[in-house]
Amino acid sequence: MELLKDIRAIDLFIYLRKHNTFIISDLHIGYEESLHDSGFFIPKQGYDELIRRIEKALNGLNIDKIIINGDILHSFSKIKLKERDKVKKIFNIIEKYGNIIILRGNHDKSLKFIFPKYDILEEVILDDILITHGDVINKHSKDKNIRTIIIGHEHPAISLRSNVRIEKYKCFLKGKFRLKNLIVMPSCNLFVEGTNMLKDKLLSPYLKDISDFKAFIIEDKIYDFGKLKKLESY
Predict the structure, then answer these.
(1) SS3 for 228?
(2) Is-contact 34 25, C-beta < 8 A?
(3) What is d(CA 197, CA 227) in angstroms, rounded to the nearest whole number?
(4) Which of 13, 113, 211, 230 is deepest in the core (most CB within 10 A)?
(5) CA distances from 65 to 16, 77, 114, 150 (A)
């Protein structure tokens, strides 16, 4: 699904065709373990399914760079050995496709100590595109040469009612921030349901009035569901 010229949504990810760049957002490695520790039954296949979907999306693309847009880890505190091994496994797999660039998320306080070989950046600028996590307003957001901003952090989703059932779907959002294009990526962690953009309190300072934002829902493929203000009655 083409969100903007040369900016394509593929499953839970974004491909910048002109820049040979693939973006992954909000892995939240360790979230499954935190749910399990809280007494929830979590299928073990989720992590392997995520890797399968990443590789499926990457296959056939011309990639130089893979940007991980923040919140690689879920826990703010001590990282378990199992979580560290999961991150290493994903990195080892995706490094076969391109160079990894890591952007700092609000959950990634200890990341530099765990993976010292990687620089942890606040943003990446590719021509007129700014990529940043989105938990704070990046200092380059006002730059005149920036026309498009891509963020994560919010974990956008839409809850839709079908008869008595309510289903929540991950989605991309596309709208405006101070006259610039703004794209919000979903969390690629399959167990992170996300923020219901029609009802829940918003997290990112980039998102204020989002009624004119368009939602692109992710299911068997990506569907353009139009503006959020038209979905509020669902």
Answers:
(1) helix
(2) no
(3) 11
(4) 13
(5) 10, 29, 22, 16
DSSP character for 113?
Answer: H
Q: Please, which residues have CB within 8 angstroms of residue 179's CB and are 6 or more apart in sequence?
A: none
Q: Domains in the chain, please, with CATH? A: 2-230 (3.60.21)
**Alpha carbon 76 to its chain's center:** 18
Taking CA atoms, 15 is separated from 18, 24, 65, 66, in Å, by 9, 9, 10, 9
Q: What is the pLDDT along the chain (234 residues), one digit of tens a residue?
A: 999 999 999 999 999 999 999 999 999 887 566 555 555 566 667 788 999 999 999 999 999 999 999 888 865 566 777 778 888 899 999 999 999 999 998 756 667 777 788 889 999 999 999 999 999 999 999 999 999 999 999 999 998 877 777 888 999 999 999 999 999 999 999 888 888 998 888 999 999 999 999 999 999 999 999 999 888 655
Q: What is the CA radius of gyration of the chain?
A: 17
Distance, CA of 150 to CA of 122 (rounded, Å): 13
Query: What angle do the packed helices 45-58 and 81-94 form, to 10 degrees?
Result: 20
User: How far is C-alpha 83 from the geometric centre of its chain's CA atoms?
Assistant: 19
CA-CA distance, 139 to 232, in Å (whole number)?
Answer: 33
What's the CA gap between 94 and 59, in Å, rounded?
Answer: 11
* Single-letter code of the amino acid located at 121: L
Going through 48-163 in order, the beta strands assigned E by DSSP cover 65-69, 99-103, 120-121, 123-126, 129-132, 148-151, 156-162
